[in-house]
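ok here's F5/8 type C domain-containing protein:
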Amino acid sequence: MNTTAALLCALLPALPAPDPVHLTVNPHSLPLTTGPCNARNLSVRLANISGRPVYADAELTAPKALHLQRTLVSTWLPAGYTRAVPVRVGAATGTPPGAYVIRVDSGSRHVDVPVTVAAPPPAAGLTTHATGVTAASFRAANPICDAADGDPATFWSDGTNRYWPDWYQLDWHTPVTASRVDVTTPAEGGLRDWDVQVWAGDWQTVASVRGNSATTRTSEFPARPTTAVRILTLAANGVNDLSRIAELTVS
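and the structure:
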């Protein structure tokens, strides 16, 4: 029996070693709204389920219609350690609505994430409907979209300390009617002075704020059609004296 078993073991192919890394992706499906700053995060989790440290990679692939902030996650995992890495996923204005799939591979494991793309609903604010979001400059840690992502905990900052003025701008392909602008700045080192400008063949100042110390200020003005709204920043409340906007809301 022992000889027979040994012969059988020699003839049978060896089973592959179990993959030391377990892959999960959250959420399991992702609804996306088109627009330059309407991206959402996927969380790619790599867990080392072996008893030894390993390098772990995860590769993301997606249709050209989707924009992935990164296509490779690579990390060192001590034994028993799990790391979750956020990956920003977006769909540009004009992306055809429909169903897409992002594939995530790590070793022998893979996860498919269904993505549903849709245009912003009519009831969404003008900031969500913006087709362009630009600024005079920015810092890698505080990118442009951080002032138009609906999250007041993040903020845009310019890249030129103590150099004024700066500007932050929303654009639309077709005219919109604007009559109110809300500017939210960080509680520390927020904006002090700025002008609200709308485009009507040239930039026209429709409201001005001076001596601000609040985190949110509202500027109202007679309704007018425009294809762009700009905040012209003029001064801040210390802390390296640069422009910081946490949220810009136009209505």
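+1. Residues 21-118 form a domain with the Immunoglobulin-like fold (CATH 2.60.40.10).
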